[in-house]
Design goal:
- The complex is a heterodimer of chains A (115) and B (121).
- Chain A has 115 residues and is mostly beta strands.
- Chain A is built from no helices and 12 strands.
- Chain A is 0% helix and 50% strand.
- In chain A, strand 8 and strand 9 form a beta hairpin.
- With 121 residues, chain B is mainly β.
- The chains are: A mainly beta (115), B mainly beta (121).
- Chains A and B meet through strand 6, strand 10 and strand 11 of A and strand 4, strand 5, strand 9 and strand 10 of B.
Chain lengths: 115, 121
Amino acid sequence: AQSVAQPEDQVNVAEGNPLTVKCTYSVSGNPYLFWYVQYPNRGLQFLLKYITGDNLVKGSYGFEAEFNKSQTSFHLKKPSALVSDSALYFCAVRDTSSNTGKLIFGQGTTLQVKP
Amino acid sequence: EPEVTQTPSHQVTQMGQEVILRCVPISNHLYFYWYRQILGQKVEFLVSFYNNEISEKSEIFDDQFSVERPDGSNFTLKIRSTKLEDSAMYFCASRGTDGTSGSDSSYNEQFFGPGTRLTVL
């Protein structure tokens, strides 16, 4: 079955330090991978995606993610965390068994950035 | 910047009652979705809608659920007889297309609304 795993429920970092939020996936065929962020009382906001090409993709708010095919991972990174980055982050993959583009989500990781 | 909107933000209902959750997708998008998130659990797919018909539905989307695009702008999710386990956050999403017939545009990101929190008592 196709799936996405985010192994950490919560990640704590100090402001100014680099952050990593982990994601691994299991799909057949070529994955389309996405990261979304959810702030309190807001919807899911798109951050970035990997479709093909360069394994390092850059997105909104200084975030980037590295696609690693051999490790089936798509970790979200930022060189210097801000307190305002504190939110809930979701990794998602397009379900390749479907032609509707529906997404399969990980369980989410809460990022806490402390001043 | 265009956005997906949803109303109401919070709906409280009694078990067995009908609810309609409303969404206004981004105007030039052609693919529409409903997802839900039960508290503390994953965001899970409910249904996709394209060309005025359901293109896929999950096992959750049983006969109690229906979707409609009544007027070319709104996209609604109806639950006919709510159950306690329907309590969740419901997200609407829409996705654009490159406009090329037959092309796979599923690499385009989905845009999500802010969600409707449904509480069934």
